[in-house]
Amino acid sequence: MKKGITPKSQDYNKWYTDVITKAELADYGPVKGTMVIRPYGFEIWDRLKNSFDTRFKETGHVNAYFPLFIPKSFLAKEAEHVEGFAKECAVVTHSRLKTNESGDDLVVDPDSRLQEEIIVRPTSETVIWSMYKKWIHSYRDLPILMNQWANVVRWEMRTRLFLRTSEFLWQEGHTAHETEKEALEETKRMLDIYQEVVEEKMAIPVLTGTKSDSEKFAGAEETYCIEAMMGDKKALQAGTSHYLGQNFSKAFDVKFQTKDNKENFVYATSWGVSTRLIGALIMVHGDDKGLRLPPNIAPIQVVVIPVINKEYDPDKFKVYIEKLITEMDDNDIRYYVDDREQYTAGYKFNEWEMKGVPIRLEIGPRDINNKQAVMARRDIGEKETISINDSFKTIQSCLINIQEKLFSQAKKFQEDNTFTVNNYNDFKVQINKGGFIRCGWDGSPESENKIKEETKATIRCILTEQNTSNLKCIYSDKPAQHEVIFSKAY
Amino acid sequence: MKKGITPKSQDYNKWYTDVITKAELADYGPVKGTMVIRPYGFEIWDRLKNSFDTRFKETGHVNAYFPLFIPKSFLAKEAEHVEGFAKECAVVTHSRLKTNESGDDLVVDPDSRLQEEIIVRPTSETVIWSMYKKWIHSYRDLPILMNQWANVVRWEMRTRLFLRTSEFLWQEGHTAHETEKEALEETKRMLDIYQEVVEEKMAIPVLTGTKSDSEKFAGAEETYCIEAMMGDKKALQAGTSHYLGQNFSKAFDVKFQTKDNKENFVYATSWGVSTRLIGALIMVHGDDKGLRLPPNIAPIQVVVIPVINKEYDPDKFKVYIEKLITEMDDNDIRYYVDDREQYTAGYKFNEWEMKGVPIRLEIGPRDINNKQAVMARRDIGEKETISINDSFKTIQSCLINIQEKLFSQAKKFQEDNTFTVNNYNDFKVQINKGGFIRCGWDGSPESENKIKEETKATIRCILTEQNTSNLKCIYSDKPAQHEVIFSKAY
Question: What is the dihedral of CA B74, B77, B79, B82, to 10 degrees?
Answer without folding.
Answer: 0
